[in-house]
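Supplementary Note 3. Input sequence used for the single-chain structure prediction.
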Amino acid sequence: MIFHQHVPNSIDIEKPQPIEFSSLDDLMLNNTVVAAFRNYEHFYRFSISHQNLMAELRDGYEWWVLGTIEGDATSLNLPKWEPKYTKEQIAASKARQEAQMKLWQKWWKNNAKLV
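The predicted structure, written as discrete structure tokens, is reproduced below.
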């Protein structure tokens, strides 16, 4: 398998070279980011979302995409990633949706004559 580490576009560094590996332990030996998440105080577990290696924190309520796995990711025997949300995250999401809807309604009311 080959691991392609995810680096957000907002971080201005060269993309790390892909890493060949045969097991999760092998990957942790060759990638300090994956190893660092494993040793993080709030680490919960690694999981797979499609071909993405995920690091789950705080019982799965926080997550990070660490990278993409080229090859048979199921052979790592990791659980499938399922998003979890706290009540606060759900409430904040609903509030954002309602605010966006109000903005859209206001825009439509002011601009409907132009359409």
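The longest strand covers residues 62-70. Helices lie at 24-30, 32-39, 87-111.
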